[in-house]
Write a structure and sequence with these properties.
Shape of chain A: globular
Number of domains of chain A: 2
Largest sheet of chain A: 8 strands, mixed
CATH architecture of the largest domain in chain A: 3-Layer(aba) Sandwich
CATH superfamily of the largest domain in chain A: Acetylglutamate kinase-like
Structural class of chain A: alpha/beta
Strand order of the largest sheet of chain A: 3-6-2-1-9-11-12-10
Number of helices of chain A: 12
Oligomer: homodimer
Chain lengths: 404, 404
């Protein structure tokens, strides 16, 4: 007996924003089904459903109970799965919709940002056995008390990848209104090219740096379970980007992409006493306050005092500024300076850092453009420079032009 | 230890059609809670939510799978319970929402028209123990396969009554935009008066005859479990109507109400062979075809042939006309005549039929109005006459004026 391949597909809210689009998605699913695949399809809430529900919620409460927020928002995907199943059935195919609670996508108790603990496959396999196209609500699960939970940002992508891992799927396809991963933001650099293949780590760096196609969380999950992801547009049939499916041995020293992130704030704390563990104390405190620190540099000054400079995002500055000021006082540091007009530009590529001179080349290109580098961080697959925000687009253009 | 009284309330879709109304309903619930009651609140979908979902559904399928219809429609009440819980919480009170599946309102498998088999009280009692106001989705349940079901017409009322029975509630209050049961339709007869107390059986006759305040199904359930129902408006605090809470021994011969039903079609089948069991054969066949027969009369003619006349509603005529024609052929009858311009007027009152002369008075009143009676049926608490449709309002006015 030959096993039919099992494909997990995920369609975002824009792909199913109205019934005309839902019918087109039904056609796409049926097309793959007719080629001899078992189909499990994950969908988000339709178009602006979530915004509409949140508007109602805000009219009632400024600080709604996270459990009730999940009760409210999980209806969005439930509407989608019912309608998509009906659309598939109307074309003469068998389909069944399942909510997160029906599948039993078991999560922890953290409403609005739950993590998947376990997926029960039995109902899905039962339905697949009956040749049905199985349509599953993304973004949602159920906790140990049978209360509905949501997975937070990137939730539907995460549902799709987790299902692919749990079901042992042969392929996981993530469809949105973007037709793949590009070497840089096409709105900034017209020469930007679609990337055919990219490693998990490169994708992680690109995603977290601003290429908002796939949430890092779902990429991490895909990497952990070696699930190859296909990223494509639901509006056309062009080839997209495959994530994690290639062996990069032959081309390790290429730059894969150039990104920038304008959501950076530079915080400089001056005259931090040079005591062992003081930096640890500072950053532990910030972590406890939920402030996510990105780049960090520390310079020892002559007077046995340090300057510590780091970056956070604008949201964390807004909600955490008092915590940072308190931290400065506790560690006995001097003045604090905040600069919100900065941006980070990065080049990403698997094993790139081992290529001699790649960092130097990046700095030279920026130097030729008379762009001053304020901070530098490097990892195995990424080199990032903090520069002035108004120079970010020009920096990305120059780096992309020279390195790709 | 003194047990606090437990009240089950139900609010219909009009009562929670927007967030302004939801806040008002929250106030009403909190008001009763603050008087020392445990509160379990059943709600329907908001205002026109169901219509909006059905519109989407119709754009996708002319004949949607009933299972998927239930998957779609159950989101309506889920939105309501989340929002109402948030509204209660925003006023500083503890609340929790539960869907039919979370409570485990177990039903049979008949999607779109399921019947409740069993209700699991444990989660509700747990939440009540924590002093929470418990908000439960009406109209919905779960079958043995954990698929969502809906209860069909009158579903939310039925949920409320079933919960009141299952929880052993002290009171069951059904709120809508109507402030009680009237002696007749106030739009037809300006003298119509609100009824303070009514028996289950009278309510059943009034409800099924057209006073569309409370679905007969929920009244039957209330009768079976001796649950006293309070019917009132969610828009004011006026006294409503109590159903089933009184002993009518003293006032058995009063007429309680006058109703009319214009949704009647008279079917006359002529020259039915006078064979034993032929009427049974005819009506069994119609029942199998899902055609609901209301009034029936049969006249034996001289030639050993019968005329059989019966009434059905317009919907059943539309979908069942071919079945009826087939039946006429099978039983070897003659012609069939259909008259859609008829209406049924009825007087209802507990034990009324045992009052000598009450039927005669009804016929006299109609006679004085020169209204011809085409068919008559009687039950223990109801006398109905089929008349011409255009005379129905006049008949109701005259009967109400003379008898109430």
């Amino acid at each position: 007996m030959i096993e039919m391949p099992l494909i997990v597909q995920k369609y975002g809210g824009t792909s199913i924003s109205d019934t005309v689009r839902i019918k087109k998605i039904a056609d796409r699913i049926i097309n793959k089904y007719n080629k001899g695949n078992k189909m499990v399809v994950v969908v988000s809430a339709m178009g602006d459903t979530t915004d509409r529900l949140i508007k109602l919620m805000n009219e009632l409460s400024s600080n709604p109970d996270p459990r009730e927020v999940d009760m409210l928002l999980t209806t969005g995907e439930q509407v989608s799965i019912a309608l998509l199943s009906m659309a598939v059935q109307a074309k003469g195919y068998k389909a069944v919709s399942l909510t997160g609670s029906q599948v039993r996508i078991e999560t922890d108790d953290r409403h609005n940002k739950a993590e998947i603990m376990n997926i029960n496959n039995s109902r899905i396999f039962e339905e697949l056995e009956e040749d049905k196209i199985v349509v599953i609500a993304g973004f949602q699960g159920i906790n140990s008390r049978n209360d509905f939970t949501t997975l937070g940002r990137g939730g539907s992508d995460t549902t799709a990848v987790a299902l692919a891992a749990s079901l042992g799927a042969d392929r996981c396809e993530i469809y949105s209104d973007v037709d793949g991963i590009y070497t840089t933001d096409p709105r900034v650099v017209s020469e930007a090219q679609k990337i055919d293949n990219i490693s998990y780590d490169e994708m992680l760096e690109l995603a977290s740096l601003g290429a908002k196609v796939l949430h890092p969380r779902s990429v991490e999950l895909a990497k952990a379970y070696s699930i190859e992801l296909f990223i494509g547009s639901s509006f056309n049939n062009q080839a997209g980007t495959t994530v994690g499916g290639i062996n990069r041995m032959e081309k390790r020293n290429n730059v894969t992409g150039v990104t920038h992130d304008k959501d950076e704030v530079k915080i400089s704390i001056e005259q931090v006493p040079d005591q062992p563990g003081i930096a640890g104390k500072l950053f532990s405190y910030l972590a406890e306050c939920g402030i996510n620190v990105d780049m960090i540099i520390q310079n020892l000054q002559h007077n046995n005092k340090n300057d510590i400079t780091f970056t956070i995002n604008h949201e964390d500055l807004k909600k955490g500024k008092e915590h940072i000021l308190a931290a400065v006082e506790v560690i006995g540091a001097g003045n604090m300076e905040v600069d919100t007009a900065v941006a980070k530009v990065s080049i990403v590529g698997a094993g790139m850092i081992s290529t001699p001179g790649i960092a130097a080349r990046m700095f030279s290109i920026l130097g030729q453009e008379k762009i001053n580098i304020q901070m530098i961080t490097t990892s195995d697959i990424k080199i990032s420079c903090l520069i002035r925000e108004e120079e970010a687009d020009r920096a990305v253009q120059a780096l992309h032009h020279e390195l790709l």
